[in-house]
Amino acid sequence: MNSRLWPRAYAGRVVTGALTAVLMLSTVALGQQQSPILDPLVADGTLPPVAERLPTNPLVVTPVESVGKYGGTWHSGLRGGGDNAWIARTIAYDGLVRYDRDWNKVIPNLAESWEISEDAKTYTFHLRAGLKWNNGKPFTSADIAFAVDLLHEPTYAGGGGFVKNPQNPVTIEVVDDTTFKFVFEKPNGVLLDELASVNGLTIVSLSKDYCGQFYPKTNPNAAADAKAAGFDTWELYMQDRCSWATETIRWANPELPFMNAWMVKEPLKGDSARVTFERNPYYWKVDTAGNQLPYIDTLEMRVSDSLEELTLMALNGEIDFQDRHINTIINQPIFFDGQEAGGYHLGTEVSSFSNSMVLQFNLNHPDPARRAVFGNKDFRIGISEAIDRQEIIDVAFTGQGTPSQVAPRPESPFYDEEMSTQYTALDLEDAAKRFEAAGLGPKNGEGFYTMPDGSPLVVTVDTIAALHPEWVDMLEMMQLQLAAAGIKLEINSIDRTLYYDKRPTGDYDAQIWTGDGGLEVMQEPRYYFPYSPESVWAFRWQAWYNGTTPDIAEEPADWAKKQMELYTQLRAEGDADKRSALMKQILAIAKENFPVIGINLPGEGYYLAKNNLHNIPDTLKQAYLFPSPAPYDPFQWYFE
Which pLDDT tens digit goes with each residue over 84-130? Predict the structure, then answer.
């Protein structure tokens, strides 16, 4: 697995000196074919001919197996009305650029080419001429400029990424309809990776023509229009119509224009039993024979709070492809045995996760006494050495996986075996020494350690049972294991909204999550230093670093500040080897200070696909920033 470095291999050539990346795909003789379901709409004048709907230079996509066939409905399932991530992972991955299927290169997408200035401060992008939103309106540089302007609004809660980064402000210069420039105050060596990940989607998702009607800068009557529509402010009206941060809302408005292969037909709402998407007649990609994509006509997603219902649907052959929620370790033997009856097969997935579960003590706890305990490295080491990881692996994961801390995966060039294995051996004797060194009080009558002042020490760990049922199983085993070491642990299962709401207030002892950053080490360092709001082990330190919530920000410990300084240098560095060296320094500091606790390196995963669904690779990489299965181009999947 290649590291996420810049300049990396691009779909073209990188020229030193001017650092000009020229990325042009060869054109093909287009047959200008379309799905038969669009023929009547062209015939009656509802739609223009396909040649007029495609850009001048459509993106030509090579199928995995073969040129496909039009038609069919892709059935899958959502785990309740808030399961918007599956939608994003199937239809939303169409930014200015994207990753190739191997996750090795940044390749053209909406932008057909770009140039990078020698100082890495100016990025000039060239859009494909003739791009159109799914409503037929032109997609131009003005839409990108509108999105950047809106994202600069402090009241617009949208995923802005690099646009909102106060450490390196950016402006946009529109040259013409297809050319624009991002101009940064400081060098930015990571922009292409940011644009190729899920973080690059917002700036291509806000149509000036549509969303501009809710914005005072483009519509002087926006405030009055909002009042007339029943909203107190234009911001609330904008969020309702054009939200990209509130993920459920973005799929709840069928009028919101998209550049994706499928568009909303039946929206996702609180009481939805299903969500459907239909083909975008203006989609701007074709296959090697000139056929407009996508091949599949419709996506239908069953909305169910019941994992058992979705599992039964899959066993009955009612799900065509899914690699979310149902693909658990417990279900794997059931799905394996049911392949012939269900008419499906299981493919392989390689996870990017560094760990199945990350235990994050709150180093910024509002209670000074608890802050002192949780912030003590010896306390965290003692907790780690009191966990019997092999027992958890054997019971919760049927023996699949290996004991591990949170660290880069073995496939990563940043892999450090010592970092991965430190403090993973069960050692109750040393754990007791560590707890003593951390200053814990004597054990009480029940055999549990007390706080240094003699008060009870009860560690409450927040979890979301509905999201990952195995987390509760793991925590219940840890509860017994830690009790044997004298630590009383309570499990607090709450809903996801409250889980996130507690973070700014600091009202938690510890929370758990999955171990991102196993492969995307540079892009997702949340567990290596206080990088983002997902660094819940030091939420107030990351607020200081990011400058987003100064009211709760706290100056970090010196070692964390050093990491932040190194990462700031990394983001501005254009030399790949120097960036790699900076990341290794950050990892070395994380290894020494041991901020979070991991349990096990996940074993091999799997996906479920119907046997008549084609153009899916046998092995997929699975990550958040590489939002599988979208990078494997579901728009070129087809039913035989």
Answer: 788 888 998 999 999 999 998 999 999 999 999 999 999 999 999 99
pTM of full prediction above 0.90: no
Q: Give ranges for CATH 3.10.105.10 in the chain.
A: 355-601
pLDDT at position 19, please?
A: 38
Q: What is the predicted pLDDT for the residue at 372?
A: 97
Residue with tokens 């084609």: 614
Ranges of the chain with pLDDT below 50 = 1-30
Tokens of 288: 């090697």
Which one, of 425, 468, 461, 466, lies nearest residue 602 by Cα? Answer: 468
Q: Give the DSSP H/E element, type plus range, for residue 111.
A: strand 111-116
Angular region, 575: left φ>0, alpha ψ -120 to 50, beta rest:
beta
- pLDDT of 28: 41
The DSSP secondary structure of 150-180, one letter per residue, reads HHT-TT-----GGGG-TTS-EEEEEEETTEE
| φ and ψ of 496, to 5 deg | -65, -35
Hey, what are 3's tokens? 């590291």
344 and 76 in contact (C-beta within 8 Å)?
A: no
Beta strands 170-176 and 179-184 are: antiparallel
Buried b (16+ CB within 10 A) or exposed e, 38-64: beeebeeeebeebeebbbebbbbbebb
**How much is the pLDDT for 222?**
97
**Residues in CB range of 421: below 8 A, 6 or more apart:** 403, 404, 405
* Interstrand relation of 458-463 and 638-639 (parallel, antiparallel or unpaired): unpaired
Superfamily of chain region 13-206+244-327+607-639: Periplasmic binding protein-like II (3.40.190.10)
CATH fold, domain 355-601, is Dipeptide-binding Protein; domain 3 (3.10.105)
Between helix 428-437 and helix 377-385 the angle, nearest 10°, is: 160
pLDDT at 1: 33
Q: Which of 56, 59, 218, 207 is nearest to 133 (CA)?
A: 207
Q: Where does CATH 3.40.190.10 sit in the chain?
A: 13-206+244-327+607-639
Q: Report how far residue 123's alpha carbon sits from residue 144's, in angstroms, rounded to the nearest whole number.
A: 14
Strands (E), 252-354: 262-266, 274-279, 285-287, 298-304, 321-322, 344-351
Torsion of CA 96, 101, 106, 107, to 10 degrees: -60
